[in-house]
Amino acid sequence: MKVDNLISLRYIFPKHSFNFISYITFLSILGIIIGNASLVAVQSIFNGFQELTLKQIVGIDPHIRLIPQKGNFINLNDIDIEKIKDIGEINFINPTLQSKVVAVHNSKMQVFNLIGLEPNSHLFKDELPRYLISGSFGIFNKLSEQTIFIGSALAERLQVAVGESIELFTPNSIEGSLLAFSQPRGYTVSVGAIINTNIKDYDLTLAFISSSDLKHLLSIPANSVNSIDIFLKDFQKADEIKAKLSNILLQDVKIQTWKELNSQLYSIMKFEKLVSFAIVGIIIIIAVFNLFASLSMTITEKQQDIATLKAIGANDKLIKKIFLKVGLFIGVISTILGLLLGIGFVYAQSNYKWFKIDINRYIIDAIPVSLNIWDVLIVAFFSILLCFLATIYPAHQAMKINIAEELRND
After folding, report:
1. Which one, of 327, 335, 328, lies nearest residue 299 by Cα?
2. Alpha-carbon separation of residue 132 from 74, 286, 325, 369, 406 (angstroms)
3. How confident is the model over 126-155, as pLDDT tens digits?
4. Can you tell me the distance from the alpha carbon of 385 to that of 398, in angstroms, rounded to the nearest whole number?
5. N or C: which end of the chain has fewer CB within 10 A?
6. What predicted TM-score, i.e. pTM, was given to this entire model?
7. CA-based nearest residue to 28, from 377, 322, 331, 299
8. Judging by beta carbons within 10 Å of its beta carbon (0-12, 13-18, 19+), is residue 32 exposed, middle or buried?
């Protein structure tokens, strides 16, 4: 083993004496371990919740949505659906109708977004049944006429249950009644099912009905839709498919990816993860200050040893390297132990579900975790870099020790 490595390790792990400086070093090592483990665990929990949220969002919301640049409708005769399918990576294409409506039930009133579904649509066949908590979607996935499917928060706001009826009023019907000074005509529908996605905005502001009912309610022109919803095999390729779509679609059609449709929520999730990293990272920063203090005290205590090393031929470069390696060894050892501890927690939570959640209230039974290798590498780099930076000044001070003065004071 090289001399500088041997001396560095001896300063970190003294054989005979365990003094106050050793306690400070031990605390800095422990702090770095806890900080790294906490960062990996917290980032993994945020990843787990983000993946769960995104899975729900991109299940109900399309991965790509085509909307008109002007007006409210897209004429399907102007869109070559088969040409879009030829792009590849596309699972489903759903022409969609939707409108803001007002629902009234027993003097309770709520505004929400009503979406028209075809019986064979991806949402109706595959996604919505996953969130069913009451009622039924019908036999063989066929939509009943004048049946509406609503979120749990909307049902609670209207105080309506499965089988009960509600009145729907469109903006046009309300406007017409105001101009004619008459009572608006409502459209009666029966609640067929209640769903719960655990996303409040969805459960309160979304409801689903058959496309034929919505066309009748809104008097929509033939072959016209509000949007064309596209679901991909891999939603992470949305930006790539958007670029391809922009080359084949008309200029009067706007293309939005799931990130743009949920830009505010997506930005909040990224910001929360960044803030959590900064807050938990303070643990490592405090531990690094302890490391800085312990190295400074070590140099003060070992001045005569450093002078002796210089006297027998050690140059300033070797002295600086010794103390730089002290900080580097502490950083690397502590970081590796902390990362292993954090990864162990993620593995245990994934397989044994130590921290459980009430499955009767939520759609999951335990806190979700997801380990991202880039998060681990960033935490490791951040930790080791801080430890290395904390050693630069003490190592530089060690080079300035005067041989003659220290040996004379011995």
Report:
1. 327
2. 31, 49, 60, 25, 80
3. 788 888 888 887 644 455 567 889 999 999
4. 20
5. N
6. 0.70
7. 331
8. buried
